[in-house]
Amino acid sequence: MSSANAIVLRPRFKIELKRNNEDALRIFEDIKKTQSDFIINRIDDHVFIKFPKEKQHFWSPQLHLEINAVNSKTSILHGLFGPNPTVWTMFMFIHFIVAGLFIAFGIWAYTNWSLETDYTMQLFVVILMIVFWIVLYFVGRIGKATGNEQMHILYDFMNKALKL
């Protein structure tokens, strides 16, 4: 899993399992009862693995696994690392606000330019939003790097549980 140099903020992977999906899902149901290092939740074909509150920090990742049946003897595991859903929602909300301000002030700047009136303040805000987008990107990268060690711990736990 080489995620350190990837541009994506939410790394994904796919593994073909030599067991049916119910067996793989049952493994996580059983291991949930025998360990306390991780919180494991299963909903249908989805398994969510995350750290307990005392081991979490703001950028702690969680691992979302979707295990789909291919036939009676094999299945496909789709994995997705991501931040806590609350953090991800906040991050997307901030992106939405920045995009909205960028568009609104861009339209206002264009209107003032068309009317041949002063548009420096609007242009300044548009440029500021571009800078803010870049800052948000690097904050996301720093957050990903901060949670990288925990991401590997989650991945190793999954591999050990499924004996991969």
Automatic annotation (TrEMBL):
The keyword Transmembrane helix applies. The keyword Transmembrane applies. It comes from the Bacteria. Keywords: Membrane, Transmembrane, Transmembrane helix. The chain crosses the membrane at residues 87-109, 121-140. This is GTP-binding protein.
